[in-house]
Write a structure and sequence with these properties.
Order of helices and strands: HHEEEEEEHEHEEEEE
Structural class: alpha+beta
Strand content: 35-45%
Radius of gyration: 40 Å
Number of helices: 4
Number of strands: 12
Length: 271
Amino acid sequence: MTLKKTLFACLALALILALLAGCGSKTESTQTAKPEASAQQNEASAPEDAAESAPEAEAEAEAEAEAAPEADAVNPYAWLGLQDMPKCNYLDILSTNNFIQVYDTYVLGVKAEVTDACEGLKSYQKNQSNLSYNLEGMIYSLNTDAKQYAQVDMTSAVADAKAAMDSAMSEGTNTKGRVFQGTGKSAVPLYSDESGDSAEYEYYEYLTGDPESSSVLERFFLRDGDVFAVYTKTHAGESDLESTNVIKSISGDVPDDLFVLPDLADYTKIN
């Protein structure tokens, strides 16, 4: 190759490299500009996107909160030891420890109507001529026919009893000591003989204590999805005592004057 041709080839190569370098600079400049423009567009649209997505985010958060499992929630029946039973009106009210109920009790061949009420640490029971009151530690047993009464002062234990009750209800501590035995189906003992109702009802059975020495067996009978009868068999040594309570009504609306002790001026104190 002549010198002239060599010089021409070198100049041509330098020109091509210069052109390539120029194209590279333009390309980099263009690519750099695009992200900046994109960022500006994103910044401009961010408030709109945020405004549009905020309600969606809130809705999603609410849905997640509603769907979250309540595995740690305390069963309201647990402090009674009845958490294995299905939800029902009777236990909903009974578990509040604020109720008044009326039931027919069948025991030793006798049927009697009983009114039973509770409001926190206050309780009341009326069984024919017998009245009993627990007025936050002051306990009274009255016989309205004989005009006699007995009185026991347990007020020193009220503060501890209240704290224990509040703790048991909030934490679900089984204060009754009931142990679930299972379910079954049968006629209601004692009641079926007296009423002639031989229909079989589903029941949930519980045991408290030691069956070999002293224990209480309970069966909660269900009808139309609610407790309507409670059978109890109390075992002590060689003796058994059976009773059945058939619920007539239960309410959380307790009369204000129910826990007012009657005038005992003409009663005789026997203890």
